[in-house]
Amino acid sequence: MNIFDDLLKLVKDELELKNCLQDLNRDIEYTFKECYDWCFKSNLSYDATILFKIDSLCDFLQDELNTGHWSEVPLSIRQAFSGTSYIKALIILKRPSDPINILQDALKCIDLGLLLGAPLKDNQDLLTQCATMLSKLLSQSHPKDERLNTINKRKSYSDHSNNFNSLPGEEICTLECPSLETFNSKHFVPQIPAKLQGCITHWPASEKWLNVNYLLKVAGDRTVPVEIGSHYTDESWTQRLMSLKDFIQTYYLGNSDTVGYLAQHNLFDQVSELKDDICIPEYCGLSRDYENSMEPDVNAWFGPKGTLSPLHFDPKDNLLAQVYGTKQILLFSPKDSEYLYPHDDKLLFNTAQVDPTKPDLLKYSNYCKAVPYKCLLETGEMLYIPPKWWHHVIALDNSFSVSFWWQ
Ligand SMILES: O=C(O)CCC(=O)C(=O)O
Fold first, then answer.
1. What is the pLDDT at residue 380?
2. Which domain holds residue 134?
3. What's the 313 CA to ligand 1 centre distance in angstroms?
4. Does residue 376 line the site of ligand 1, with CB under 6 A?
5. Rounded Cα–Cα distance for residues 34 and 28 (Å)
6. Which residues of the chain have pLDDT under 70?
7. Which of 21, 198, 344, 383 could form a disulfide with 177 if both were Cys (CB 3.0 to 4.6 A apart)?
8. Domain assignment of residue 185, yes or no
9. In terms of domains, do 373 and 305 share one?
């Protein structure tokens, strides 16, 4: 398969790749180098022992990645996992099997490397480039009749305004594509939420993503994390890795009893083609601390009608862009935090116990002192959520949003 040679040519710094397990024990490093050398030899044919060895290395590193808190995993382990995933994908490509199967397995392996690993320094784009090539080849190899006959038509969405009008709370103000100066002085500096219209209508995503077949073509075989369960504070809630195609068929278009939500995932660093369909809003150039400002964290929130993000807050400024579908959002100022009963738990300190859509006033009696704000966020609109503002989000339609968290 030529794809093997094409992927091999993507390595910019062979030495860095070959030594990417040097911080681990000698036996492990030696096994990796053996697998590496096998790939870089010419005219090799499939070798089950080599695949077994690289498989064991990946398993070992995955165990290391899953030990302790994610933020404490050493960078060297994550980089080792990236390098090992790359070599494993190459070895898989030599397996004598159905070509589509092989390409899917190799891509899955690269995606795991992208999701759990960290880029090597001098081979920074190695996995992203591999994934793009494999995904392109796969989408050309799929039979044409696999296309789904589903287009999200904007006009087919129902009118949610009646229900929304009956919700308690003051509606937050709406601005038509404000100038940077207006946004800065009236909202960013005083930290007041606002709904912004006319800011994302030029995004290619506004048209392209309405067609599910487009998403399937560019990313159907990509592995993505999916939240399963009604919401993340629910006991039965869990997360699973699956292909975007399986997610769309089972949870997005299917009639699954359980909710599946591709939530808070940086799909755009993983699938670079999708990054070209959106633009970073110019408002993200504003900062409260220019010396320490950073590129925004861009996340995808893609799911069926009914997804729910419980009342919580985030530390950064946020622009939540609604590419299509409608979301009902309830907001509360940080000043009202004590009336929302944040969880005591270390991991859930930013999540409220009270459900603002059906508050239990016997249990949470001070909730009545909190002042709710509301927003019906519709296709093409963007919501500015200042840092630490509480927000509760329900998708009223099938929906695709993109959030930009920045500081
Ligand atoms: O859209 C959602 O479900 C939640 C979005 C959110 O919480 C955020 O952007 O911070």
1. 97
2. 2-141
3. 9
4. no
5. 10
6. 1, 42-43, 144-157
7. 198
8. yes
9. yes
Mark out the alpha helices in 66-160 (DSSP H runs): 75-93, 99-116, 126-141
Q: How far is the CA of 247 from the centre of ligand 1 (A)?
A: 19
Nearest alpha-carbon partner for 324 in 241, 194, 227, 215: 215
Q: What angle do CA 362, 364, 367 make, to 5 degrees?
A: 115
What distance in Å separates the CA atoms of residue 222 and residue 209, rounded to the nearest whole number?
A: 16
Look at residue 150 and tell me if it is in a domain. no
Amino acid at position 381, single letter: E
Contact 265, 224 (CB under 8 A): yes
Domain membership of residue 147 (yes or no) is no
Res 155: pLDDT:
46
Q: What is the pLDDT of residue 157?
A: 59
Q: What is the pLDDT of residue 68?
A: 80
Domain count, the chain: 2
> Tokens 């499939």 identify what position?
46
Please report whether residue 245 resides in a domain.
Answer: yes
We report the CATH number of the domain holding residue 179 as 2.60.120.650
The rounded Å distance from CA 314 to ligand 1 centre is 9
Question: What's 291's DSSP letter?
Answer: G
Considering 115, 141, 167, which residue would you say is the last residue of a domain? 141
